[in-house]
Amino acid sequence: MAQDVRDAFGPCEVMCKCFGLLPVYFRAELTFHQKVTNCLHLVAIYGLLAWSTGICMPRDMVNYSLSMVMNRSVVLLIVAYYVQPFCNTVGCWVFSEKIYIILDHIGSVDEKLAQIGTRMHNDHQRKFIRFFTNLTTAPLCVIFMTTYYLNTDMSDLCYLLSSIYFSLHHVIVCSLAGTLGWLLHKRFRALAATLQRMYFPTTPTSGGFLTTTAPGHTAETAVCSEKEQLTVLRQIKILHDKLNDVVELVNYCFSVQITFCVGLCFVIGVVCSFGLFRAFIYRNELFYMGVLNFIWYMYYLFFVLFFIAVGSKITREGKRIGVLVHKAINCSTSTAVINELNIFSQQLLHRSPVITCGLFVYDWTLLYTMIGATATYLIILIQFDVSFPNLVNVNGTATSPGV
Asked: Whole-model pTM above 0.70?
């Protein structure tokens, strides 16, 4: 049973520690022994990354395509692909103390919500996070087991293990940020439910602008006294402000890492789409490689989309709270409560939850922009590919000048 948000976050935490995205100990204050353990853990992770890069990168740099444009694009993709885990590891370690503060703040919000009658189901959240963690690792584990039984070459086995390690390293960054964002979304949703469920009426009463009710329907009234309404509303305002502080911490901790992930996802999308186009056009021996690369891109895109979906849900919950506040203003009959709601409305106007990196907001608009840009660059690559001669013509059948 998960007792608090730290227990609910446990499966993701263990996975991140295994892949070096979080230190073994991350809290506000560390002992000397814990600091030494963290340093040894970081050295081991960087050694594993360097070893995996040495195995995979030279092999991936081999030009399999006959297209000059495709080869140059793949080189750019491979360099970005193998540099990103080093940067993400440093970024997550630098902000590990902030991640501890994020979990601590979410835990304090849960305690305040319990005081006003809303309890968070941390056990259910732990089950979802465990399921999401298994969803992260299961597909690549299936690929590993299949290849292990089909191939006994040790060099290929080392290459496969290194490739799986790098692939998981990329998706776990999105899983870490997405899990923290998902926990925040659940708190904003609980805050909106508290505001809607029991403290304020949802339809106007005779004291408002509605003087009659339809047959068979009665006007709703608040189930609490005016004093309790004011007390709870002040608590909701404080909790909303604290959750916005946590949102800013998430933006501060993961803006660079997620921007790298989104940028790499865009580059992979362009290159893999171009490779899939060539695979279907030319139908050569690299057809299955192009299809498999595109399937891997869809797997990686799923975790980027999960973070974008979480950011969009957080923004939508912030707007939903504003709608509920204005409904309460229209329906309430107490002047003191209306004044407090107006202050809360101003707070929502000046400070709404938004997941952003500073350059753009992580919502569905970003996905539509990426799709449009991918289509644009894909057309450009196809035009360049048609304009430049293939490598076979350059190396084998090109004629000399003047012939």
From this structure: yes
